[in-house]
């Protein structure tokens, strides 16, 4: 019910007073004015509360299955370079590993695998009929939508410096929640191995085949090089030629020294031979007749002494003969040539023989000197030829060694990767399921929270509607508001009679 105010007019009313001023209210006025709008507020409150309650009662109870994983550093996170050793053995920290595993757990591909393994109708029984009647394109879209729905119901939790990953999945059916979460764990163990180990990676095999092909081509070029240049073993042949060169040169120097020695000796022998006569007296007889006659005279004197005195004439005569003969012997007048024999001089013959031997040795040494000179030249030419071929040989050898080492290394890496894939395919030692999902016995519903929110929203909306209605009414609604607004005292109030 609206009321009008009777006020006293001052003797001198202000001519410029603003009667259309905005109404001023006190807190007590709001209670009175809102009470006047109680029926409108009650209607708005009941309508909104009814709608919220209707929505709340349509909500179904949901069940949450939980599980957890223990994750630690595994071999798949250890960096193994494809080639070389740069940064070999580098590993991420625990938080990085946990984040990586969490991303794999929350990947859309893994959720789609779970849906396809369990069946779309099992995970989403409400849309089973629609999925069965859909065409392939519609099924693909429904699976994509289902993958997003599973992602919204799946919750993955991690904590810093903690190796545990906690997961929960919410569904209207407890058995389905258990199946979805356990299937997610099983598919996760398979999917992460295919993702991290990469079973289909044939890069090492292709690279090894490439190196083997290049090695075969290099081997062919290497063998052709050896056959073209008539070389069996380049290194061994070069080593043998180097040793042979040293030996031949040493022997050549020795022959040169021997030749000079023999030539010097030959020159000395020839000089001595020129001074030595070819013939010499072999032996010569000496004439002893004077000595014999002297001895005979002495014998005859002794015989005369037997018959004569020493002073006898015969004795003095023989003494004179003896004295004369002794004087002749002493002076050499009685010496004469005896028989003698001459022939080839033995010294000359020895010198001749030595000269002949030395001449033969000099000739032989000259021949040897020429032969060794030819050998040294041949060896040097062969070494020079090998030196010219050595760069090409070294290039081919280096290519063969490098390619052979690469083939060996990549073969080892391929076998190691294969062994690692096989071991990883059999088990995931660094991933342990701490707790598998079990069907929850109690479910949770949003009915009470929705009812509370609906009640609060209905009350707030009703209050807002009452305030808007109150503020939009014309005039001054209460005497106190009129007094504050007009700045005049209110002396009395009277009710307004409704029209009949």
TrEMBL record:
Keywords: Cell membrane, Membrane, Transmembrane, Transmembrane helix. It is found in: Cell membrane. It is a multi-pass membrane protein. Residues 31-118 form the Polysaccharide chain length determinant N-terminal domain. The chain crosses the membrane at residues 39-59, 450-472. GO terms for cellular component: plasma membrane. PANTHER family: CAPSULAR EXOPOLYSACCHARIDE FAMILY, TYROSINE-PROTEIN KINASE. This is Lipopolysaccharide biosynthesis protein.
